[in-house]
Amino acid sequence: MAAAPVSRPVRAHYTLVVLTLIYLCSNIDRSLMAVLLEPIRHEFGLSDTQLGLLSGLAFAVVFGTAGIPLGILADRTSRRKLIAAALVVWAGASALCGVAQNFVQLLLFRVGVGAGEAAGSPAAMSMVSDLYPAHQRGTAMAFYYLATAIGAAAAFAAGGWLSDHYGWRAAFILLSVPGLLLAFVVWLTVREPARGAGDGQAASPSPPLREVVRFITSQRALLLIFGALTINSFVASGMSAWITSFLVRAHGMTLEAAGPLIGSVYGVLGMAGTFLGGVLSDLLARRDERARAWLLGGSTLLSVPAVLLLVQATTIPMAATGLAGFAFLTAVPFGAGYAVCQSLVRPAMRATSAAIMYLLTNLVGYGLGPPGIGLGSDWLGAGGLGSAMFAAGSINLLSALFYVMAARSIRADFRTAAAPQP
To answer: Is the sign of the CA dihedral 52, 260, 30, 102 positive or negative?
Structure first.
């Protein structure tokens, strides 16, 4: 099979930057609801369980379920055009959240955000994998996932400030504008990379879903890392959804004060963890590919005591220290872990496999994390939010175990995925 042409470095880097900016807008739209939970709760008189549905499940159910057919579509059609169309849908739905008149309307508009983002993320991840070879993929994917930390930081900082000065509705509307503008940028300036280019081979035709599922289930390391990332997502999304409310309730902070604090911590430490995780993953793997899984497991394990410090802190500086440790350590798997998953499948099935991964990490992780903590908080009563957050954070112990178990078969699974297809 002839080798696929590799993208020129300048073109590859430009495309990566544009895709990262798009993912940044995605994370702003996704995280903004968590920032605005308190003013929304007061206006509509909602319970913590309802707030958890808004910040998690309403988005994640549609994101996860719609992602499978849209991921299959991304493996068969223009990913660039699909991303541009998806941007218009999710940014527009996020803007509509700002005109919602009740809980049901707000819930439906969040469903729209999830539907749009379900098309964009698998396609973008597949494109990044085709832009860079395997030995650079961890760093490239880590750069892409910097948008997670920057987006959360921007949502907390800008969303909190806009809400305090102009109201929560203005925050939704104004922060959706960059995404709508980027839709034109990707449509007019981004080129579609050749499938399989990053692996030096032309991709075979995209296989049917059942074949993708069969291949994924045959890769033991991939299954374990899927499970670990799902747990990571559950913990990270649940914590990020409730950290503002926790600081407001436990430490009496205002949204204007809590937003910049959380934004700066997630921004600086989240970016550092994401990027260093990707770079270290590529560097350590030069000697032993198993080091990728060991790195992910170690960072996940250390995140648990950071959560304990956060929820048990008696002062704001102590809470900020715990949050900083948690933000850094939980950011390491995002980027490095997703890059590993892309390298553990064949090029022609990357968007579909990414959609399956997003189904797990979002439906189970993002979908159940925020409402799970909300239910725990309601069940425990006054002052129970911190305990519910620690209970959720402790589940990362299981994630760390999955990563360590994946190291046993990861080298063989890499070879299987990289083997040329007839």
So the answer is: positive
